[in-house]
């Protein structure tokens, strides 16, 4: 597992403002946010009040941040299969 998956990851998307402050912290330059994925998972497990879509996006992002599916350990062929599956699931609109 990569260090970023264990310790957190830097996100620049402003949507992380939805987190409570304990889950996120500003990175020194102020242009990004550090998410502690274990705290994000705890937040999700506490059944927060939010739309099902927002929770689904946060769950997916948290799963990727935690490296839950071990994507960082996959070889090129397996990553290609995962990419194809995601493209099929998302449709051509993306």
The percent range for helix content is: 40-55%
Average pLDDT confidence is 76
Q: Would you count the extended β strands for me?
A: 3
Structural class: mainly alpha
**Multimer state:** single chain
Fraction of residues in β-strands: 5-15%
Per DSSP, the total helix count is: 4
> Could you give the order of the helices and strands?
HEEEHHH
3D architecture notes:
The chain contains four helices and three strands. Helix 2 runs antiparallel to helix 3. The radius of gyration is 14 Å and the shape is globular. The protein starts with a helix and ends with a helix.
Key structural traits:
single chain, mainly alpha, three-stranded antiparallel beta sheet, 4 helices
Summarize the structure in short.
With 94 residues, the chain is mainly α. The chain contains 4 helices and 3 strands; from the N terminus they run αβββααα.
How is the secondary structure organized here?
Elements: H1 3-7, E1 9-11, E2 24-26, E3 33-35, H2 37-45, H3 52-65, H4 76-90
Antiparallel strand pairs: 1-3, 2-3
Helix pairs in contact: 2-3
